[in-house]
Design brief:
138 residues, alpha/beta, three-stranded mixed sheet, 6 strands, disordered C terminus
Amino acid sequence: MQSTGVIACAKHFIGNEQEHFRGGSGEQAESSDINDRTLHELYLWPFAESVRAGAGAVMCSYQRVNQTYACENSKLLNGILKEELDFQGFVVSDWGAVESGINTALAGTDMDMPGFFGYVTPSLPDENNPAISNDSYW
C-alpha cells in the first residue's frame, strides 16, 4: 500500500474498546484501566504487527488509558510504541482527541488533527452548522 504513495495508519492506539463516553472535543472520557501484562498480551498485538509490517502512522484515540488521555500518554506513545516496538513513523491524534497542546506533544503525538467544538454548543445555533462554523470540521 505505501509503495503507491499512501501511508498506512493503524488506529486507534490503544484500548479503544467502546464508542460511549470515549471523550473528544472537550468531553470527559472514561478510562480503560489496563495492567501491563494484559496490555502486552491482548491489546498490543495488532499494533505490533502493524509496526512490523511497516505502517507509516499510528492514530491515538479519544479515551483515557490508566487515567491519562491516550494522545498524551507518554508511557504508551514514547515508551511502548516508539521505544519498545521501535515505531519509526508518526503518531497522529484522532479528530478532536487532543486535550492539551504541550502535554500531547511531549507525550509523543506528532500531529494534531483539529476538533469540531461547534457541534457541542447548542446555545450558539450558528456554530452548529458546519457550513458557517469557524471551528474546524473534518
